[in-house]
Amino acid sequence: MKIRVSAGTARILGLKKLKMDASMTSAYLMVGEHCVFNCAYCAQARKAKSRQDMLSRIVWPQYDLNEIVARIHDSTFLRICIQVVNSLGYFESVLHVIQALQTRIPISVSIRTLDSRQVKTLFGMGVDRIGLPLDVATPRLYHELRGGDFHAAKSFIIESAHHFPNKVSTHLIVGLGETDEELLSIAQEFIDARVLVSLFAFTPVRGTQMESHPAPPLARYRKLQFAVHAMAEGSIRFQNLEFTPEGELATVVDLPLAKRRRAVSTAGCPGCTRPFYNERPGGVIYNIPLKEGCEVEASDV
Ligand code: SF4
Question: Which superfamily is assigned to 2-300 in CATH?
């Protein structure tokens, strides 16, 4: 079986020459390609005309699975993150990859599903954390941009976290057309349900339906990072925030200096840095990778 790994992972595994000035403590693997879904912002979407080897703005070269497994065993990675593209037969492929990995390195799986049996099966196989991305933070846009039912997707994430506390993450994309109020409202619901919330900045990718849509302003992204961080640590609640009539956050959420660095760093599973997932080298850095990987542990939410 062939498997795609992120270009940065391939570099660390000694399979690709690449100039990269960022530390990476997680190996990123991609299972499946050509998704059955058609998310307007995704390079793997059914109708996207993007390069087949792309996800977000990252290139994912393909290698033999056995070769990747052998090199991961000899690596110092702290985590393996499997990004699942829902192509035909994707779930069997994920199971096959997990079985082939045979490792003590914690595995995270990021997957779009509404099937609780799949979640149970993955945890039953020893997967450490599961990411169930909501991506689109408002029912106003969910059906149009992601397809499917916002409320069903949200409830599924919350229910999964109920069954597997502190083991479930979700992603929210900033800049799809949602307001600050919409995004922070859903973030609070997830935090209350002990779902770890990671923010992504919308990244226009060539060949997707949203290729001409702008990335969010950094100032807005920082404001939302500060607010989500403060909500996750319990120092503010959504209900105490003020918004303009247009839904823009009007409360200044300030954090002590020591916490600011953490608030603007890549949030996610321990050991995850996701370098340049949203950002071009030399361009705006939305999520700053910490050298040692994410510091936001499950117990922090
Ligand atoms: S479900 Fe995930 S992989 Fe599939 S089109 Fe949507 S974002 Fe892309």
Answer: Aldolase class I (3.20.20.70)
Residue 201's Cβ-side half-sphere holds a number of Cα atoms within 13 Å equal to 30
User: What is the whole-number distance in angstroms between the Cα of residue 206 and the centre of ligand 1?
Assistant: 15
Which residue, by CA, sits nearest to atom 8 of ligand 1? 42
* Conformation bin of residue 234: beta by default, left when phi > 0, alpha when psi is -120 to 50: left
- Looking at residue 301, what is its pLDDT? 23
Query: Could you identify the atom of ligand 1 that is nearest to the CA of residue 83?
Result: 3
- Please tell me the pTM assigned to this model: 0.90
Q: Which residues of the chain have pLDDT under 70?
A: 20-23, 266-267, 271, 273-283, 289-301
User: For residue 146, which atom of ligand 1 is closest to its CA?
Assistant: 6
Would you kindly state where each structural domain of the chain is located, as residue ranges? 2-300
At residue 294, the pLDDT reads 43
158 Cα: distance to centroid of ligand 1 (angstroms) = 20
Cα 135 from Cα 146, distance rounded (Å): 8
Please tell me the predicted confidence (pLDDT) of residue 277.
58
Take atom 3 of ligand 1 and give the residue whose Cα is closest.
85
Residue 295 is predicted with a pLDDT of 39
> Which uninterrupted H or E stretch holds 4?
strand 2-5
The CB-side HSE value for 226 (13 A sphere, CA atoms) comes to 17
